[in-house]
Fold:
Amino acid sequence: MGKLIKNHWARLIIMTAAAYQIGASIEGFIWPKIFWDFLTKNLDGAVKPVPILQILNLLLGIVALALEYPIKWIKETDLHRSFEFRLMFFPLSATCAVLMYQGINPALYYLIGIGIYFWAYTEGEIIYHEPWSLPRRPRTMKV
Structure:
């Protein structure tokens, strides 16, 4: 049996959350609603009349997808290989997603992905330049 590569697993979960966040922000343009409006009406200005939170969620979802399924000019940078950047950026995305009514599920997916990324980071995994690649074993010849 093989060993579980946790950063690949977390990447799939984060890509799901980012795609869901993009869809939730588009739905938020149609039906603007803050999740916490049953507690306070102070946050309603973030979704209507100007859709600030929806635009922010849309941009954060696109950036998360571009980081996790990297386009050519992102996968060649150290930012793509950084666990630290991911562990700082994705909580911001989860916070913006949890504020919108439509973004509760992507926020939960982000939290699960962040936990798995932290697990991978603590076990010493690294993210390779090429997505979905495995570490190469050195070839040793036995005589």
Observations:
- The chain has a mean pLDDT of 87.
- The two ends are 27 Å apart (CA to CA).
